[in-house]
Amino acid sequence: MTEVWSAVADWLAARADEVIETSCARVYLTGDTAWKLKRPVRFAFLDFSTLEKRKWALDRELSFNRRWSGDIYRAVRPVTRQGETFAIGGEGHAVEWLLEMRRFDPDAVIGHRPEPMDPALADDLGRLIARAHIDAPIASRDVDLGAYGYTVDSNEMPLKETAAERALAQRVIDGTRAGRDALTPLLMTRLDEGFARQCHGDLHLGNILLEAGRPVPFDCLEFNDTLSWMDALYDVAFPIMDLVVRGQTIAANRLLNAYLDEAARGFPPSLWRGLRVLPQFLAVRASVRAHVTGSNGERETSARYLRAAEEFLTAPTPRLIAVGGLSGTGKTHFARHLAPLIAPAPGAVILRSDEVRKRLWNVGSLDPLPPEAYAPTEDGRVYGEIFAAAALVLAAGCPVVLDATFLDPARRVEAEAIAARAGVPFDGLWLKGEPSELRARLAARAGDASDADLAVLERQLARDAVPVTWRSHDIQSGLDRLARDLARPGGQ
């Protein structure tokens, strides 16, 4: 450490309420402000050894995080000499640089909170990440595999050194290396299609706040271009993985499906085909946390991440489940209950007609649509989009749950045909209930993507016919048991 840097660090510490130490920086908490001072260190993956390089890193940290964190990151400020002391700002040349941030409650960090993530918050987080990815700079061809490829290689040695179970660590290393080699052609295709972006890079739950009921990611990886550029799915794999390891599979599945629905608004349809890479991305993210927590002496946590990494390497089995029924029968509730039960975690992809219709009309998932959006021709577009996406997800090796009314018998036939063409098992479920119950449910509905009202239900009741080839189930009995039965291999 330089003499000037040490003097500045001591000066800041004398004025701080609290000092937070990391391997790369110190953060000084004073009142409602946090001041970050980069350490003059150089590692294999970063270089803060000179004043100019620290200023460069702070400028990038400010720029990168403003895309995610709003008003948390305020400005980069110079530290200047003022006689025998220092000042933030002031006259003269900078002897050091600080990042000014808004101080926040550490108990607001989601990774520090004991309660499970609320599913609605998981939805919000998934959509926020997707919108940030859509707006992010697109990688050029020379990025290659980016952070994912780099991490597969660089993580091997520290994982071996920190893992308590060496044989398990070696299996994870072998599996992630083999996965990278097998997936390289697909990942390069995704690079050419624009799926590689300048991402957050470090989206574990310890880097996401909950403020005013909304998720706020912070602390992007800004110091190394190799670690900033990546396939967008590799970025969102981090919080999904973290939720799964914490036993929050419902939130993980909601996050994934909200992300996919929002990402489909800005990425090409091959988004769905790319799900083939997700298990590998989850495994690599888990292996990184295994070595980081192991290095910190958190042996039990490290072992849990390592076991999860091996479990993620087990490829899912593709299958198609269609959930139909009149409005108000709880198709979406059931689909969201079922999807995370389908192993391995994070579960099945849900394709919901209400959300697809909103996408096609380019409105928010909760924004109402005009009546013409529900014309028969629009129904054709919606089901066409759902079926096309389902075919791509099945081809990627992932299970799918379709959530739509399926009132038209031709739509039911087509759903079965998609499964047959993909060579995967199919289960059709028809939910039914008493009209009075359905009317009561629709009257109480709020904050949902569905625009169905009582008038829509009355039209449906006039044409309702239970599909003879699909399993029929009354909504008043045993939906949890039904979901668990369907989630098992074979679906019965």
Topology:
Elements: H1 3-15, E1 18-21, E2 25-30, E3 33-38, E4 42-43, E5 46-47, H2 51-69, E6 73-82, E7 85-88, E8 94-102, H3 119-135, H4 146-154, H5 156-162, H6 166-192, E9 196-198, E10 208-211, E11 214-217, H7 225-228, E12 229-231, H8 232-245, H9 249-263, H10 278-295, H11 299-312, E13 320-325, H12 331-338, E14 349-352, H13 353-360, H14 376-395, E15 400-403, H15 409-422, E16 426-432, H16 435-444, H17 454-463, E17 471-474, H18 479-487
Parallel strand pairs: 13-15, 13-16, 14-15, 16-17
Antiparallel strand pairs: 1-2, 2-3, 3-8, 4-5, 6-7, 6-8, 9-12, 10-11
Description:
The chain is an alpha/beta fold and about 500 residues long. The chain has 3 domains: about 5-105, Phosphorylase Kinase, domain 1; about 110-310, Aminoglycoside 3'-phosphotransferase, Chain: A, domain 2, CATH 3.90.1200.10; about 320-485, 3-Layer(aba) Sandwich (Rossmann fold). About 50% of the residues lie in helices and about 15% in strands. It has 18 helices and 17 strands. The protein has helices spanning about 5-15, 50-70, 120-135, 145-155, 155-160, 165-190, 225-230, 230-245, 250-265, 280-295, 300-310, 330-340, 355-360, 375-395, 410-420, 435-445, 455-465, 480-485, and strands spanning about 20, 25-30, 35-40, 40-45, 45, 75-80, 85-90, 95-100, 195-200, 210, 215, 230, 320-325, 350, 400-405, 425-430, 470-475. It has a 6-stranded antiparallel sheet with strand order 1-2-3-8-6-7, with helices on both faces. Strand 1 (about 20) and strand 2 form a beta hairpin. Helix 3 packs parallel to helix 9, helix 6 (about 165-190) crosses helix 10 (about 280-295) and helix 8 packs across helix 10. The longest helix has 27 residues, at about 165-190. It starts with a helix and ends in a 5-residue tail after the last helix. The mean pLDDT is about 95.
